[in-house]
Amino acid sequence: MAMAANQAQFTIQVATIETPLKVYGFEGYEGISRNYTMAVTIVCDKADLELENWLQLPVCLILETNNPQQEAKRYIHGMVYSIEQLSLDPTNPLDRHCRYKLTITPKIERLKHRRNHRIFQQKSVPEIIEQILVDAGIFSNEYQFKFSSEHKAREYCVQYGESDLAFIQRLMSEEGIHYHFQHSEHSHLMVIADGQDGFLQLPALPYAQHNGMTKERDIISQFQVKQQVSTGKVTLRDYHFKKPEFKPQGQKQTNIVTEQPLECYQFPGQFKTEAVAKRRASIGLEQHRTEHTLITGSSDAPQMTSGYYQPLIQHPNQAWNDDWLVIGVIHKGKQPQVLEEFADGAATYQAEFTCTPWDVPFRSLTQPKPLIHGEQTAFVTGPEGEEIYCDEFGRVKVQFHWDREGQADEKTSCWLRTSQGWAGNGYGQFILPRIGHEVIVSFMNGDPDKPVITGAVYNAKNRVPYELPANKTRSTFKTSSSMGGDNFNELSFEDKKQSEQIALHAAKNLDVQIQHNRTQEIHQQDHLTVHGSRYQEVKRDSHSTVNGTQFETIKGDDHQQVGKERHTEVGSKLLSEVGSEIHVKAGQKIVIEAGNEITVTAGGSLLKVDPSGVTLLGPMVNINSGGCAGNGSGIALLSPELPFVSSPSTSGKGLTVAPEKLNKKRLEKMDVFIPSNQIKAIRTAANKKSALCEVCIADRERDQA
């Protein structure tokens, strides 16, 4: 655009600055989903401007236009991002003008200097963007949302070391959202949209080539259309552990048959449902095809603004006389006449622009997400008053060391899966990290949004189970009773030479279940101490061999019940001493045999049978002359109580089962020593095949106490 020699076509206003300023020249770029930058060279008579005072001041560059359908002025509003005092012109030592170069950017340019590590939960991308803008001091009248589709809340979204600007730009690119700016003399508005209806329209410009003559209005002097091969198909696939056999997939392809084989296949696709997969695939294809048809051109019209439709008229190719979406503009302007007698040319302005067809959805390419390489540690968290907090999948929540907003509660993070040594369908290894444990966290494919626990470490607060290095040969698996931690279960291994040991400690019950054989071999001694009662049942035969001497002490009564015959063989002598009475009763007969002698003594009387005959001696011997048989105490046999055993279906849960079969006669025999409430409970448990007999357990524990 050629301009009058002495007329200023570019002016500038800086808030609170009263020093007269003149624009010598400017150059800058603006684009959709990019912050504009305009470098403006100004001149003034002051050589001592306080540069620090200029930073972040509102500023407006004003360009005069020459379009009867357009306002007379084009505004580029922003803030002073930087200011630089330039050297004097060495070729003109008499030049009195002081030169400065200031850079104009939108207010959100400040966001690139705000870098953070933070977690957003259950928030949509628009909600996250708004929170970022508000936190950065961007007021609600400085941005505007124009959405044509719903943006669902993200369960978990991490800003990991990104600047606020890079973070919201990445989120917008992932959601198919773009932004541009609308300018006025005193403000600039950030318009955030997800469709073509977020763009406004500029007045039409005619196409005309430069012919060296003065033009009556702004024109488009160059207009080139280029088409290029682009990706024609996008396929996304992902995996979610809640549906391990389901392979969700999203796919979208162009209707240009020759480009359909040009597929972009991406894994992971960052989705959980088919609906989201299809939407992301559609956005992905639109990203690749945004520049399938690309227009470049030149104009002397300052009205050229990114994020607007620019109608073209009077082009010889009628198909091109249409609306075109301006996606980028380079502005260049210069007016040397402000140097007055030192002017070195006429004022000029040119805009080099890039456009796409109006009906091609604009999508900026997805910005790369920062990856977390390696592992981190974090603390397991949960509600106050709890020691263990998890969900149905054994996932826990953590607080990362970099998270300064988390409150170390049940809301600090998403649920994290915990790595196990073995994981099958209802079997495997399972150890659940507890609140306060320091765990090692890895990230699936390096994605900060997909943490997983892969291990645990001790620290100065959570110390190792045994003091080190004194116990360096001891390995252990030791738990802590919850709640309170005043007891533990443990399986430990001592590997010190000549002190090797395997130790097992159960804080309460130890249930061992063997579905076939158990074989034990002890080369030295076997010690067993039962502080309460011991119960044992052998459902078939019991074999016991003692190759040495057997010692047995029973400090109470000894009750033995033999259902059939009892055979006892003593190689040498059978010696018994009874303090009060021996009472032997047989249903039919008692036979006592001795190879040499039988002697019965009582009081002063004697009965002796030996090979020499029968000797009967006493103060008086009565034969068929009165007397009667003595009476014994009679038997009062008590049957043993039956043991409780672990149920196969509840092994490891500390539960017990009633005997498999309890017939009526056996229960009647048990009535002599089992309380009535326990008999009733055993009958009920046996008949119902119940897995728990609480009354029996209570009675037994009371008896053992």
Automatic annotation (TrEMBL):
Residues 475-583 form the Gp5/Type VI secretion system Vgr C-terminal trimerisation domain. The keyword Secreted applies. One of its GO terms (cellular component) is extracellular region. It comes from the Bacteria. It holds the Pfam family Phage_base_V. Its main location: secreted. Residues 393-458 form the Gp5/Type VI secretion system Vgr protein OB-fold domain. This is Type VI secretion protein VgrG. It comes from Vibrio genomosp. F6 str. FF-238.
